[in-house]
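1st attempt posting a full record on here, be nice pls
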Amino acid sequence: MQLQESGEMYLETILILTQENKNVRAIDVCEYMGFSKPSVSRALGLLKGGGYISVDEDGYITLTDEGRYVADKMYDRHKILTDFLISLGVTEEVATADACKIEHHISDESFDALKKFLSR
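the predicted structure (as tokens):
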């Protein structure tokens, strides 16, 4: 299943929420993202069907290995891009918003080159 940008955002959100609180439920995703329960339920169903998350009998969401890989990748991109933009003088608020847009569209090749450049 090819993930859309929104799917990547959901996985990244679940990762962030898991870091804050081990037990993540759909309502937590709703509150964090500001989306309606039906929208989140549909998205989580697609992610579950694609093998990116599992949901136990109590409604707790867990990232699968594949879901964790994608979430880690997006979160890493987000942090590095945000820090990079801030270092250029962009305000934190704008840098965070722009990084969220860029992280889903930048190629692996370009991102790897950026990371390599920044590590110098």
